[in-house]
């Protein structure tokens, strides 16, 4: 049935319409169509009756998609209303305006009766800062963020305001910076907003004419005109005018004026206050932030002052521990520097106990993950409520004490984690790690970023500059740091040299440093003699120095067997043997195959513990060669500990060692970094180590750190440290420096990283320059004293008499500048001449020179003697002078103006006298072309003789008079000056600076003649004023420069890095962080490369295991000899990574960063790509170990770090919105997280 087309409704038609109801054939008469609307459709079906074979899909498609008439847009509201009636839905317009509730602007506070505490009343209190959130404020008053972000924060959050960076005061806000301008709302308005193409035209077509401002003085002056007739009344009126101002007609401008007046009248009083308070502040400024605590004075009243301590120990505390606890009770920050095993942990434990008592939180940071795990176990046993956060583990993060690595705390601070609110203490363990070139900067960033309410506890090995370091922290945090430093060892050490190498000589152990710290040379010589006796006759006759320092493996073996046999006889085990190479550790341990140091009971205990610990591993992993070898070694009481050992094995070894079941442990230096495992004896296999660049002797700090492992508190009376002399005895000087030298000082390793810059640019209130200014590397800047000096200089400047620069004196200042430039240029030239070879040749005996110093002005002299000391060379010279000015008392010659650049030579007015003086470089202002024949010895002897009182009046000798006469004759013959040696032509100095300077000198000398001011009678006095004013101004400028950011040593690099970020579009030209920058903030290392790879879709074509393999180049740092076999797609990926790295490296180079592109690309090593690829595809660990020459422990650590990188990339992919990449990274992460690589630490169970 076709649709009937009815003509549109006309004026004559009745408002009727027929409606066909569906397929039933019924019609309805519509008599009340809505007024003013066309009639509704004539059928409820859009196309009349449906076809017989029902296809609902096409029907629905036709009804809803093809025929627009059904849509209410095209039709009356009628159908829509009907539709609503069908669904019975209540319209709710408010639901469209769905926004979070605004915070209440007021709260209720309770009024209580002060005596009984009864509730009397409630009153409404207005609340401030209700609009603050983590996205717009640094304040602690801001609302907490969502619970999911409470632990790690979010990279869109603002950090909390770092302590010591004050929020701006009103005064500072009023002061305008150089960039701010007053906006004139009438003229010069910007038409186009930054970043827009078009703008808006503000020009008012018919602007109203603004009324001129009424101002009090103009009103008063009209007032005065009226009362001009009575002068005395006028004065009274003016006096009253001030009081009566409100009665004058109140215009807007007058009100303004009243306000301005109030402000200006309040400022003098404030200034007055400031002036008064300044003297009080001065001592405050002088005093140090770091307060050294005297460890020698005992704490007798300790228990009186802390009647119920937060934590009790089963032993009596040492003095330094008591003092630290007292400081903690007072909520002060402390720096505790003490030797290992002196008991620094006590301080940390007390802080944790305090925070549990106060219901606050403590964060304990350590530099190494292994150390975090150990501390977790120790503190968990002590306190119970302890959590752990490392890159891959997160255990009970809601605890009151959190243990984490420093990097995680840094990211929590940058991301505004909510944990920071409840934080009372942050404990930094092993702070001397701040010297680490790679990671030291993290400590500084954390210290700078910590908010004000957090107190800081720093635990460190002994360092010489603890006070200086604490002073820096105190200065940036504006709080006192108490420095508690003790050199006392609970177990004193004895250092021996061991020269034995066979059972016959096994007792050859010589005491070198006794327990009190005296160096015994007797012991040293005894060791040398013992060694000498055994060297062959040949070596005795030709000296032993030519024997190499390295010994063969068999010799090593005999030495170790001898020594360990001797030590186990003397009950000196457990022994830690420090060896500075992993292969040496392994070889030494394996060579002791004949040695058995454990009893059968101990063997059983070791076996059961070993089996129990490894029960978590999968069957195949238990049979790894390293594990089998170590099991055999452990049963005999021997073990190896270095970075190549599997982490779980390392933990087994540490636990067995601390239980005293490992008798000999061959370890590298890392074992001494914090792993708190003291031994009875420490042996040094050698005292030379390779530090990445070359071999060197151990530094005192390193030696002390390792030797400090000897001596267990409460078990040993003294600790034994033994140095093996395998080839020969080490030099005595080396040993002395190493054992008794000063440990390494804490030095700043602060450097700019892109992550830091981007994280600070995200937040407008924090500037990177503030971070740089507060870094330890800039701690020598004493800004406070400089600022006081600046204000003094400004006052001096304003109090100086004004300059008279009228008429003839108008070019006085430019004259001053010309003269100053002339002086500096001349000095530079002279320095160049006198330091050159030819200059020194010219300054030989007999050369006539022009002398200028305090006593002489342009006087001629002749050189008699030149000292051979090249650093401060002196020229003994005979100089002519006035009679009476020989000693320089009568300063007659100096009245002539020094600034007047005259070259006229000095000619004595009266009789000519002479003097012999030793001159410095600076006193000789010109080397003339003349030379005289002189007899220097006679002149000097004669002059010296006449200096004695007896011969004072003798006439000068023949040689002197001749020389003096000659000089006088020269001076009289050339009164305008003698030709000097030209540095370029005569002395053959062809340096660019020299040539430029000598040309500049000629120009300046010429220009001096053109100045008028020198002819003025007032010239001398005015010139002195200019000089005074200018010297003050110069010092002021210098100090202002030092205080400003321009003097920061890292500023140029900062600008270069900003340039790199801009050209890669991480930030825009105004410094706002863009999407790429946001992504880079997520990434902790190699952020540029990873972000570029992400945005260039390098990872998209790769499978999850391939992308994991590719990213392994970011975490693997060693060189390998094995060439990896990899798939073609991976090879392409590697090439793309290298090309991206090359591009970034070249860009950095072009922006001025010192690192070359080759160095930048060279950081990424692809040696483990095959290993990771196979591991991610599920190959067992035993097979993987065979693919590479990298040791198992290193492989495991790389894969663990790789997992952290994969997580970061996943986060980054989420920010970009690339969900495919995100899920791919998740798959990759799941693929690598398995088996032995991710076995949970034994310490955390």
TrEMBL record:
<feature type="domain" description="Helicase ATP-binding">
    <location>
        <begin position="325"/>
        <end position="481"/>
    </location>
</feature>
<keyword id="KW-0694">RNA-binding</keyword>
<keyword id="KW-0963">Cytoplasm</keyword>
<keyword id="KW-0067">ATP-binding</keyword>
<dbReference type="GO" id="GO:0003723">
    <property type="term" value="F:RNA binding"/>
</dbReference>
<keyword id="KW-0547">Nucleotide-binding</keyword>
<dbReference type="InterPro" id="IPR016438">
    <property type="entry name" value="SKI2-like"/>
</dbReference>
<dbReference type="InterPro" id="IPR012961">
    <property type="entry name" value="Ski2/MTR4_C"/>
</dbReference>
<dbReference type="Pfam" id="PF00270">
    <property type="entry name" value="DEAD"/>
</dbReference>
<dbReference type="GO" id="GO:0003724">
    <property type="term" value="F:RNA helicase activity"/>
</dbReference>
<feature type="region of interest" description="Disordered">
    <location>
        <begin position="134"/>
        <end position="158"/>
    </location>
</feature>
<dbReference type="InterPro" id="IPR001650">
    <property type="entry name" value="Helicase_C-like"/>
</dbReference>
<dbReference type="InterPro" id="IPR014001">
    <property type="entry name" value="Helicase_ATP-bd"/>
</dbReference>
<dbReference type="InterPro" id="IPR011545">
    <property type="entry name" value="DEAD/DEAH_box_helicase_dom"/>
</dbReference>
<dbReference type="Pfam" id="PF00271">
    <property type="entry name" value="Helicase_C"/>
</dbReference>
<dbReference type="InterPro" id="IPR050699">
    <property type="entry name" value="RNA-DNA_Helicase"/>
</dbReference>
<dbReference type="InterPro" id="IPR025696">
    <property type="entry name" value="Beta-barrel_MTR4"/>
</dbReference>
<keyword id="KW-0378">Hydrolase</keyword>
<feature type="compositionally biased region" description="Basic and acidic residues">
    <location>
        <begin position="233"/>
        <end position="246"/>
    </location>
</feature>
<dbReference type="Pfam" id="PF13234">
    <property type="entry name" value="MTR4_beta-barrel"/>
</dbReference>
<dbReference type="GO" id="GO:0070478">
    <property type="term" value="P:nuclear-transcribed mRNA catabolic process, 3'-5' exonucleolytic nonsense-mediated decay"/>
</dbReference>
<dbReference type="InterPro" id="IPR040801">
    <property type="entry name" value="Ski2_N"/>
</dbReference>
<feature type="compositionally biased region" description="Basic and acidic residues">
    <location>
        <begin position="271"/>
        <end position="284"/>
    </location>
</feature>
<dbReference type="Pfam" id="PF08148">
    <property type="entry name" value="DSHCT"/>
</dbReference>
<dbReference type="GO" id="GO:0016787">
    <property type="term" value="F:hydrolase activity"/>
</dbReference>
<dbReference type="GO" id="GO:0055087">
    <property type="term" value="C:Ski complex"/>
</dbReference>
<dbReference type="GO" id="GO:0005524">
    <property type="term" value="F:ATP binding"/>
</dbReference>
<dbReference type="Pfam" id="PF17911">
    <property type="entry name" value="Ski2_N"/>
</dbReference>
<feature type="region of interest" description="Disordered">
    <location>
        <begin position="233"/>
        <end position="289"/>
    </location>
</feature>
<protein>
    <submittedName>
        <fullName>Helicase SKI2W</fullName>
    </submittedName>
</protein>
<keyword id="KW-0347">Helicase</keyword>
<feature type="domain" description="Helicase C-terminal">
    <location>
        <begin position="596"/>
        <end position="761"/>
    </location>
</feature>
């Amino acid at each position: 049935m076709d649709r009937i087309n009815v003509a549109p409704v006309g004026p004559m038609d009745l408002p009727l319409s027929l409606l066909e109801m569906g397929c039933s054939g019924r019609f309805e008469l519509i008599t009340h169509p809505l007024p003013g609307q066309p009639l509704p459709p004539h059928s409820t079906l859009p196309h009349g009756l449906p076809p017989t074979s029902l296809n609902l899909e096409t029907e629905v498609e036709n009804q809803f998609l093809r025929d627009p008439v059904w849509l209410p847009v095209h039709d009356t509201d009628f159908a829509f209303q009907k539709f609503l009636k069908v669904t019975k839905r209540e319209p709710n317009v408010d639901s469209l305006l769905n926004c979070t509730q605004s915070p209440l602007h007021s709260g209720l506070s309770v009024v209580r009766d002060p005596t009984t505490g009864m509730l009397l009343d409630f009153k409404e209190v207005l609340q401030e800062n209700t609009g603050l959130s983590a996205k717009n404020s640094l304040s602690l008053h801001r609302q907490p963020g969502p619970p999911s972000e409470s632990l790690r924060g979010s990279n869109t959050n603002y950090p909390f305001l770092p302590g010591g960076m004050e929020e701006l005061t009103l005064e500072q806000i009023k002061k305008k910076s150089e960039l701010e301008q007053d906006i004139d709302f009438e003229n010069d308005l910007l038409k186009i907003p930054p970043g827009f193409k078009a703008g808006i035209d503000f020009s008012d077509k018919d602007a109203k004419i603004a009324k001129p401002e009424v101002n009090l003085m103009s009103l008063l002056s009209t007032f005065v005109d009226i009362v001009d007739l009575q002068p005395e009344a006028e004065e009274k009126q003016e006096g009253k005018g001030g009081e009566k101002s409100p009665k004058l007609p109140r215009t807007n401008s007058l009100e303004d004026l009243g306000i301005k007046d109030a402000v200006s009248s309040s400022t003098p009083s404030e200034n007055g206050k400031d002036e008064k308070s300044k003297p009080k502040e001065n001592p405050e400024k002088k005093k140090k932030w770091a307060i050294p605590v005297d460890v020698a004075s005992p704490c007798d009243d300790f228990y009186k002052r802390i009647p119920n301590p937060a934590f009790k120990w089963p032993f009596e505390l040492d003095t330094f521990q008591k003092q630290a606890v007292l400081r903690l009770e007072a909520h002060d920050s402390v720096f505790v520097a003490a030797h290992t095993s002196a008991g620094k942990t006590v301080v940390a434990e007390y802080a944790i106990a305090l925070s549990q008592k106060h219901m606050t939180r403590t964060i304990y940071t350590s530099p190494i993950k292994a150390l975090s795990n150990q501390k977790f176990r120790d503190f968990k046993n002590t306190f119970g409520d302890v959590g752990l956060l490392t890159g891959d583990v997160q255990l009970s993060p809601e605890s009151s004490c959190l243990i984490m690595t420093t990097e995680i705390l840094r990211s929590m601070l940058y991301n505004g984690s909510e944990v920071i609110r409840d934080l009372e203490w942050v404990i930094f363990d092993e702070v001397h790690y701040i010297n680490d070139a790679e990671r030291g900067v993290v400590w500084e960033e954390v210290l700078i970023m910590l908010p004000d309410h957090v107190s800081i506890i720093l635990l460190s090995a002994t360092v010489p500059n603890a006070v200086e370091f604490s002073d820096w922290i105190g200065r940036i945090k504006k709080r006192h740091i108490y420095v508690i430093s003790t050199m006392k060892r609970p177990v004193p050490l004895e250092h021996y040299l061991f020269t034995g190498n066979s059972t016959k000589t096994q007792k050859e152990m010589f005491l070198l440093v006794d327990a009190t710290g005296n160096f015994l040379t007797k012991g040293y010589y005894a060791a040398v003699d013992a060694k000498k006796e055994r060297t062959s006759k040949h070596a005795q006759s030709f000296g032993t120095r030519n024997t190499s320092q390295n010994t063969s493996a068999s010799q090593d073996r005999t030495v170790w067997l001898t020594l360990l046999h001797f030590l186990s006889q003397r009950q000196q085990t457990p022994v830690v043997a420090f060896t500075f190479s992993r292969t040496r550790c392994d070889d030494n341990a394996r060579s002791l195959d004949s040695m058995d140091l454990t009893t059968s009971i101990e063997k059983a205990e070791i076996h059961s513990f070993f089996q129990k610990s490894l029960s978590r591993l999968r069957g195949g992993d238990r049979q790894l060669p390293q594990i089998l070898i170590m099991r055999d070694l452990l049963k005999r009481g021997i073990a190896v500990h270095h970075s190549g050992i599997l982490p779980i094995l390392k933990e087994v070894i540490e636990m067995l060692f601390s239980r005293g079941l490992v008798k000999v442990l061959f370890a590298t230096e890392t074992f001494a970094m914090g792993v708190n495992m003291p031994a009875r004896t420490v042996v040094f296999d050698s005292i030379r180590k390779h530090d990445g660049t070359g071999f060197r002797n151990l530094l005192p700090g390193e030696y002390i750190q390792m030797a400090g492992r000897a001596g267990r508190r409460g078990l040993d009376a003294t600790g034994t440290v033994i140095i093996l002399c395998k080839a020969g005895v080490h030099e005595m000087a080396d040993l002395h420096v190493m054992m008794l030298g000063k440990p390494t000082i804490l030095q700043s390793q602060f450097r700019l990283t892109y992550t830091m810059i981007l994280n600070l640019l995200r937040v407008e209130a924090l500037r990177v320059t503030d971070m740089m200014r507060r870094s330890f590397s800039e701690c020598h800047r004493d800004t406070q004293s400089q600022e006081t000096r600046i204000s003094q200089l400004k006052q001096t400047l304003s109090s100086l008499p004004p300059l008279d620069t009228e008429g003839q004196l108008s070019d006085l200042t430019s004259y001053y500048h010309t003269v100053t430039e002339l002086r500096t240029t001349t000095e530079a030239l002279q320095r160049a001449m006198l330091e050159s070879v030819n200059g020194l040749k010219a300054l030989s005996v007999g050369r006539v020179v022009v002398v200028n110093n305090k006593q002489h002005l342009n006087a001629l002299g002749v050189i008699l003697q030149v000292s051979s000391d090249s650093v401060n060379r002196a020229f003994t010279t005979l100089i002519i002078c006035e009679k009476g000015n020989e000693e320089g008392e009568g300063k007659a010659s100096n009245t002539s103006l020094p600034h007047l650049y005259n070259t006229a030579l000095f000619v004595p007015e009266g009789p000519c006298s002479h003097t012999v003086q030793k001159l410095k470089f600076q006193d000789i202002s010109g080397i003339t072309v003349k030379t005289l024949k002189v007899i220097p010895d006679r002149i000097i002897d004669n002059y010296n003789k006449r200096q004695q009182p007896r011969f004072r009046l003798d006439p000068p000798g023949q040689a002197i008079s001749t020389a003096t006469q000659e000089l006088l004759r020269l001076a009289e013959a050339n009164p305008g000056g003698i030709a000097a040696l030209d540095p370029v032509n005569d002395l053959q100095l062809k340096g660019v600076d020299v040539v430029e300077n000598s040309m500049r000198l000629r120009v300046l000398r010429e220009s001096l003649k053109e100045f008028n001011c020198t002819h003025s009678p007032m010239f001398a006095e005015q010139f002195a004023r200019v000089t005074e004013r200018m010297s003050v101004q110069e010092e002021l400028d210098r100090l202002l420069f030092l205080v400003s950011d321009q003097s920061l040593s890292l500023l140029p690099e900062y600008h270069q890095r900003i340039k790199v970020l801009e050209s890669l579009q991480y930030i825009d030209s105004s410094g706002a962080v863009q999407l790429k920058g946001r992504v880079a903030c997520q990434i902790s290392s190699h952020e540029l490369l990873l972000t570029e790879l992400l945005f260039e879709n390098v990872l998209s074509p790769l499978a999850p295991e391939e992308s994991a393999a590719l990213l392994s180049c970011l975490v693997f740092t060693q060189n390998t000899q094995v060439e990896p076999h990899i798939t073609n797609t991976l090879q392409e990926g590697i090439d793309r990574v290298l090309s991206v790295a090359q591009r970034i490296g070249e860009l950095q180079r072009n922006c001025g960063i010192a690192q070359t592109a080759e160095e930048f690309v060279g950081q990424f090593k692809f040696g483990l790509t095959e290993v990771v690829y196979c591991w991610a595809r599920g190959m067992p660990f035993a097979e993987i170990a065979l693919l590479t020459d990298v040791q198992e422990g290193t492989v495991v650590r790389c894969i663990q770090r790789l997992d952290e990188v994969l997580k970061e990339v996943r986060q980054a992919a989420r920010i970009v919105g690339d969900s495919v990449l995100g899920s791919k990274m998740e798959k990759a992460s799941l693929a690598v997280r398995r088996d032995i690589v991710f076995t949970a630490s034994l310490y955390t169970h």
